[in-house]
Each structure stands twice: as C-alpha cells, then as structure tokens.
C-alpha cells in the first residue's frame, strides 16, 4: 500500500518513536477529521491523526475501530485538554439570546434553524482519554494543555506515544517537564485554533520560523513543526530549523478525504489567494480562518462573544445555514496562511508530489553549496 518506500528516508527520532516511514504528520482536524483521511495518510507511511474533541466516549471507541479496520499502521487520536473557558458554566440564557440576536437575522435569511438555549453540558476529558487508554491507541496527541500525570503514566505503561502541542517556548518546556515523547511546535500561521495554555493566545503568537528553532534548542525532545507548511519548500525549511517531522493541517483539509465541504475546499485551494485572519468570534477561542463578512462582523468591537464552546453553537448554526445556502461570506472557512499554495486533490497524489518535491528542493539547496564552493 505504502508509496513511502519509493523515497529513501533516514529515520528521525519522530519516525522511530512512532514507527512510521515518512516524517509527515496529518494534523488532527477536529470535526473535519475523517477515518478515511487518517487511514490514507497512515497507509501512505506518515502519521494520520483524528481530532476527537467533540466526540462522546462511545463515538471515539467507534472511530478507533473504524480506523483500525482501514489501516494496520500507527495513527493518533487527538483531544483537547481544556474543554471550556471560564464562564461556560455560568453563562445564562440572557447571554445566549444577546449573542444570538445579532446573528439570528442572517440565520433566518439563509433558511436555517435558530439554535435554542440549554445549559452547558461538558464532555469530560477524563472519559474520552479512558477510551484511548483502553483501546491502546498507538499515539495520543493533545492541545490546550497537559493531561494530568496519572493519565500520562497510564499511557506510557500501555505504550501510547505522547505528542503535546506548544505555541511558545515556555509551553514546550512545560510539556517536556511533564514527560511527553514529542513536542508539536505550532506557529501562528496554522489554520484552526491556537492551542495556547500558559498565557492568552493573543500573547502567544509566534511564527513557525521563530518558534521551531527555539523549541528545538529549549527541549531535549524531537520536535514536529506545524503552521504554514503546505509544500516541499515549507517542509524543507522546517527540517532546516531542526524539526524531525512536519505536521500539516490545511494541506490535508483541502484533500477529498477530509470532512470539509466542497465550498470550503474550493475556498482554500481554488487558487484565489484567500487572506486569513484570527478571531475569537467563531467559537470563543482564538482561531485562524479565511477572512470574510462573518469574520468582520465577529471581530467588530461591539460583537457579543460567549465563552468557549458556547459561541461555537451559535456561529456553527449560522455557518451551517450559510453553507446550505451557498453563502460563502458567512461560512466558517478554517484555513492556515499557506492555503493559497494548495490545489485540491486526494491525499495519496498530494503526498506523492510533496515527497517528490522535497527531494528536489533539498537537492537544489545542496547544489547551491557546490556552486559557491567551486565558483
Ligand atoms: C479545521 C482545522 C481543525 C483543527 N483541529 C485541530 C484539533 O482538533 N486539534 C489539534 O491539535 N490541532 C488541530 N488543528 C491544527 C492542525 O492539526 C495543524 O497543526 C495545523 O493546521 C497546521 O498548520 P497549517 O494549517 O498551516 O497546516 C486544526 C486545524 C484546522 C485547519
């Protein structure tokens, strides 16, 4: 199945620890993850990941079973350590109505159904992680914090590789102190949420080019670079910075196997050079997506934004209605800063081109040195 054998890659500490052939990770894509995409990337020789943050434990168990029916290779399940922001439990129906009142006219105009208030009912991280441990998943990646030590110990005991995500050097150090196996250093070019956990996300905005080498220097662990890597040039740059693998999200979101709608995939990879921005307005937590009317309205100074994840419910209703109505300006179009480099295709051909081009870029750079030495 794997095409990875066509290229000869020396193992890195990341590929060795995970037992994969290529230093390429399909980043978890939250609700846009699919079993098919995870398995396709793992079968190819990389690490496929599935974002299970929104799933109840029974559903996570099913997903793991389905991925296992599609691949024998290593894959990762990803969870969010902190599942809600302060205020999610105390936010009232009046708060909900205040936030909804701004967006309700749009939802109605697009023929959608208005969401109704119900008190916040969390899915417990402890219950989700229990499924991962019982199923002995090959790898557990996480964002927004560090799991309690007892869970990390249990994972280690049953041989689950631990991948923690850092958006700053201090977060990388904290993950290393907790004993994770691999640090994912995620620069602010990345699509989706900023998983900062030591300081507010707005105070943790480091670009991949700055973050990766500083994390490599700060921790004695293998580092995976994430954020803005969408082609061979980005991958080679990340390797030059000291990363031992690259994690790409937007690249895989644009593939046919992802859970993204056709409108979403076209907006990322349609060649019209979309501009992205950061907003808290889509979910209550800072995240990157394509700038459109929805983002402008949610970033307006008078926007009413509920604590995560309550805001997600309201804006999600609008986004779904807009998607149905084909109104791109009001759809949440998650995307990293390098989305415009992509063309939509399926995962295996996208990986074929990437792997081939990485060698080309690396050879080109090696050629420079010879030229300057001989000139
Ligand atoms: C739609 C979307 C959803 C994401 N969901 C998660 C998630 O649930 N957990 C996580 O750790 N990272 C998540 N990410 C981050 C990706 O796994 C990856 O690190 C990031 O996209 C890399 O940057 P890039 O978008 O520039 O490739 C998400 C990214 C996107 C675009």
Low-confidence stretches: none
Termini gap: 45 Å
Number of helices, where a helix is a run of at least 4 consecutive DSSP H or I residues: 14
- Derived from helix and strand composition plus strand pairing, the structural class reads alpha/beta
How many strands, what sense, and barrel or not for the largest sheet?
8 strands, parallel
Summarize the amount of helix as a percent range.
40-55%
| Global shape | globular
Strand-residue proportion: 5-15%
Structural commentary:
- The chain is α/β, with parallel strands linked by helices.
- The chain is built from 14 helices and eleven strands.
- The strands form two sheets. It has an eight-stranded parallel β-sheet with strand order 1-9-8-6-5-4-3-2. A three-stranded antiparallel β-sheet has the order 7-11-10, with no helix packed on it.
- Residues 27-30, 32, 51, 53, 78, 143, 165, 186, 189-192, 195, 226-229, 247-251, 253, 334, 336, 338 line the site of flavin mononucleotide.
List keywords for this structure.
single chain; 375 residues; alpha/beta; three-stranded antiparallel beta sheet; 11 strands; globular; binds flavin mononucleotide
Task: Draw up the topology in text.
Blueprint: H1 13-18, E1 24-26, H2 35-44, E2 48-51, H3 57-70, E3 75-80, H4 93-109, H5 125-134, E4 139-143, H6 149-157, E5 161-166, H7 169-178, E6 182-186, E7 192-193, H8 208-218, E8 223-226, H9 232-240, E9 245-248, H10 250-253, H11 262-269, E10 276-279, E11 287-290, H12 293-298, H13 310-324, H14 347-374
Parallel strand pairs: 1-9, 2-3, 3-4, 4-5, 5-6, 6-8, 8-9
Antiparallel strand pairs: 7-11, 10-11
Bound molecules: flavin mononucleotide.
């Amino acid at each position: 199945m794997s095409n990875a054998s066509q290229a000869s890659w020396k193992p890195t500490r990341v590929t060795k620890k995970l037992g994969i052939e290529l230093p390429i990770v399909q980043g978890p894509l939250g609700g846009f993850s699919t079993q098919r995409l995870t398995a396709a990337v793992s079968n190819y020789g990389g690490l496929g990941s599935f974002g299970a943050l929104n799933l109840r434990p029974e559903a996570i168990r099913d997903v793991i079973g389905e991925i296992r029916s599609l691949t024998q290779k290593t894959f990762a399940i990803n969870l969010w350590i902190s599942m809600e922001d302060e205020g999610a439990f105390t936010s009232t129906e009046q708060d909900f109505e205040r936030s909804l009142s701004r967006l309700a006219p749009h939802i109605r105009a697009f023929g959608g159904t208005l969401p109704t208030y119900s008190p916040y009912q969390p899915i417990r991280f402890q219950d989700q992680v229990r499924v991962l441990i019982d199923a002995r998943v090959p790898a557990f990646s996480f964002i927004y914090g560090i799991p309690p030590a007892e869970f990390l110990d249990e994972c280690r005991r049953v041989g689950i590789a631990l991948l923690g995500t850092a958006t700053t050097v201090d977060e990388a150090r904290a993950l290393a102190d907790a004993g994770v196996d691999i640090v994912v250093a995620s620069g602010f070019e990345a699509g989706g949420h900023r998983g900062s956990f030591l300081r507010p996300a707005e105070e943790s905005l480091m670009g991949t080019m700055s973050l990766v080498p500083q994390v490599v220097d700060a921790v004695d662990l293998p580092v995976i670079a994430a954020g803005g890597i969408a082609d061979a040039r980005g991958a080679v740059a990340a390797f030059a910075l000291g990363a031992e693998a690259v994690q790409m999200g937007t690249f895989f979101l644009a593939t046919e196997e992802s859970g993204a709608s056709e409108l979403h995939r076209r907006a990322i990879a349609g060649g019209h050079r979309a501009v992205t921005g950061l907003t808290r307005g889509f979910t209550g937590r800072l995240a990157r997506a394509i700038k459109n009317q929805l983002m402008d309205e949610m970033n307006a100074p008078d926007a009413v934004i509920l604590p995560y994840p309550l805001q997600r419910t309201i804006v999600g209703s609008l986004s779904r209605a807009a998607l149905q109505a084909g109104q791109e300006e009001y759809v949440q179009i998650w995307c990293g800063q390098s989305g415009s480099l992509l063309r939509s295709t399926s995962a295996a051909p996208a990986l074929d081109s990437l792997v081939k081009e990485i060698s080309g870029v690396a050879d080109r750079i090696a050629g420079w040195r010879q030229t300057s030495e001989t000139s």
